[in-house]
Recover the amino acids of this structure.
């Protein structure tokens, strides 16, 4: 109740508000589609640029007060967005929303990383990933109903209410003094530098693998609809591809957690990257709705095999004394992959073709799988051996 119910609330709210960001900008503020797309992107930018500061904040004041601060900011953002008629103020509020979401996501991950034993961590975080996916399916539906019946500004109030409800559950559960950990040392820049230097091998190897995975995840969301349009599929058929892909994605989250806890993180992380990469390599070979659906389902299976993997890796590698700072840097690494995925697709498409872009994305995934399998110590046993991790094992 202290973690999964708030996660569901926030996921529903985020799923509802993402379409509303662009719709309110176009319908209510009278801006262009280009600015609306920029507004949606500002939310992701805010999350990325605040990853490290959010980790520092959590390390300084603890998860409980960080959650309270993030919730108050999100309610304030909802009010600003609902009443604002200025495009500049609107854009700034969306950027701040992303910053506050970064705090909330990191506080949740920091707490569960410490409180859940390593033997159950894979299941706990894969279930969190599954809850996030379920909320993202429900949210757009509820947001569409609220926006259509009452106006887009009420979708933001809905998001603010869910943010407060989710945080209230966690604040009641996390009683004063129940924070997972607080950072050691006083120097802000010193703590960040220490985390990066002490764990540089992890960031270079596991971090690179994480970037490759996120590039594929973001890239497939751009490539599948574009390729579907290229081979003459309609919007309904492309939507069916995404729907079936999402179904198989959601179904796997708990079995994946069991495998991670029983055999190790590599036994799901490496297959996830390989299957996703193969689906990207196969996309240029599709030319009908059925073959596109088959590849879409394969990509959903690949993504489902990686349910919660990035969160689990961050929790496994995070040092107890500087957990917040490490997780902030770790999330930044993953967000770099998410941000660059569409840019890589765009670049290869502009220089060559969309098919080449899909093959290049798959190649990046294969490279990431090799790095994860061969160069990264098995994360399940890493913290138990502290600075002398076991040799790479698993697939």
């Amino acid at each position: 109740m202290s973690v999964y119910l708030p996660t569901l609330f926030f996921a529903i709210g985020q799923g509802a508000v993402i379409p509303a960001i662009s719709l309110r900008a176009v319908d209510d503020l009278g801006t262009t589609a280009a600015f609306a797309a920029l507004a949606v992107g500002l939310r992701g930018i805010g999350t990325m640029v605040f990853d490290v500061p959010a980790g520092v904040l959590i390390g300084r004041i603890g998860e409980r007060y960080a959650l309270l601060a993030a919730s108050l900011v999100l309610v304030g953002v909802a009010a600003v967005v609902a009443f604002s008629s200025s495009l500049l103020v609107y854009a700034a509020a969306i950027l701040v929303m992303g910053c506050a979401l970064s705090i909330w996501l990191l506080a949740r991950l920091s707490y569960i990383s410490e409180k859940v034993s390593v033997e159950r961590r894979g299941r706990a975080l894969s279930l969190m990933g599954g809850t996030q996916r379920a909320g993202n399916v429900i949210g757009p539906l509820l947001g569409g109903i609220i926006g259509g019946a009452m106006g887009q500004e009420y979708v933001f109030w809905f998001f603010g209410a869910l943010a407060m409800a989710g945080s209230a559950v966690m604040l009641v559960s996390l009683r004063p003094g129940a924070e997972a950990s607080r950072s050691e040392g006083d120097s802000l820049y010193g703590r960040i530098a220490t985390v990066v230097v002490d764990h540089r091998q992890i960031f270079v190897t596991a971090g690179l693998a994480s970037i490759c995975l996120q590039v594929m995840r973001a890239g497939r969301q751009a490539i599948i609809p574009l390729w579907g349009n290229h081979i003459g599929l309609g919007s309904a058929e492309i939507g069916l591809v995404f729907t079936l892909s999402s179904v198989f994605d959601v179904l796997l989250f708990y079995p994946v957690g069991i495998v991670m806890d029983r055999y190790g993180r590599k036994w799901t992380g490496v297959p996830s990257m390989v299957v996703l990469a193969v689906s990207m390599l196969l996309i240029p070979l599709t030319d009908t709705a059925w073959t596109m659906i088959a590849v879409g389902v394969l990509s959903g299976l690949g993504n489902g095999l990686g349910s919660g993997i990035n969160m689990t890796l961050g929790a496994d590698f995070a040092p107890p004394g500087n957990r917040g700072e490490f997780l902030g840097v770790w999330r930044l690494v993953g967000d770099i992959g998410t941000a660059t995925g569409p840019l890589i697709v765009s670049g290869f498409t502009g220089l060559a073709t969309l098919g080449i872009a899909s093959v290049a994305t798959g190649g990046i995934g294969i490279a990431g799988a090799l790095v994860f399998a061969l160069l990264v110590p098995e994360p399940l046993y890493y913290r138990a051996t502290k600075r002398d991790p076991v040799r790479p094992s698993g697939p």
Remarks:
- The mean pLDDT is 84.
- The domain at 192-385 is CATH 1.20.1250.20 (Growth Hormone; Chain: A;).
